[in-house]
Amino acid sequence: MLRNLEMKQETVKADVTERPPEIKPCSTVQPTCPEPEVKINDSCYKCEEGWEQHGGKCYYFSTKSSSWNKSRTECITKGGDLVKIDSSEEQILLQKKNGKFWIGLTDSAVEGRWLWVDGSPLNERLTFWFFTEPNNMPVQDPDGEDCAMMGHNGIMFWFDYSCKLTLRSICEKAAVAVCV
C-alpha cells in the first residue's frame, strides 16, 4: 500500500512539472481581479507622529484629561474627531489601552437617542455597553449622563457618564495613503 502511494505521488509530481502553466497574467483578466484588501498596518498608509496606525485609520490617545466637549474640540483641532467604533475588531483594539477614555457617542440632543459625532445613530446590534448601561444616573451631575466613555475600573465596556467630568480621549482620523 505504501508503494502504491509513493507511485501515485511520483505520477502527480511529474504531471505538475510537465504541464504548461495555464494561468494568465492579471492584466488580461483585469475586470475579474478583486480589489486588494487593506491589511492592518499596511505600509501604504501613514499617520502623523503621536498617532497610532491600524489599517486605514489613525488613533490618538490623549494624555491629558478634559470634558467630553473639550476633548472633541481637541480632536477636531488635530484633524480628526472622537472615535466612532465601527466593529468588534476596533473595540478589541481600543480596549487594549488602559484607562478611561471618551469616545464619540452622545445622547445629549435627545435622551436615549445615541448618536456618533458624525451624526449617525448607534447601531443597536453593535454596542459594547456594560450590562447596566446606559443608565443616565444623575449621581455626579443633576443633568444626568449624556456622553459615552470606555474603561472603568479595568472594565473595557462602554458607560454613560457626565459630559462635564474630565477623562482622556481617543481621537480618530483616516490614515494618509502614501503608495501610488
UniProtKB/TrEMBL annotation:
What organism, scientifically named, is this protein from?
Astatotilapia calliptera
Q: What's the name of the protein? A: C-type lectin domain-containing protein
Which InterPro entries did the record assign? C-type_lectin-like (IPR001304), C-type_lectin-like/link_sf (IPR016186), C-type_lectin/snaclec_domain (IPR050111), C-type_lectin_CS (IPR018378), CD209-like_CTLD (IPR033989), CTDL_fold (IPR016187)
Q: Where is the C-type lectin domain?
A: 54-172
Report the Pfam families cross-referenced here: Lectin_C
Listed GO molecular functions? Answer: carbohydrate binding
Q: Which UniProt keywords apply?
A: Disulfide bond, Lectin
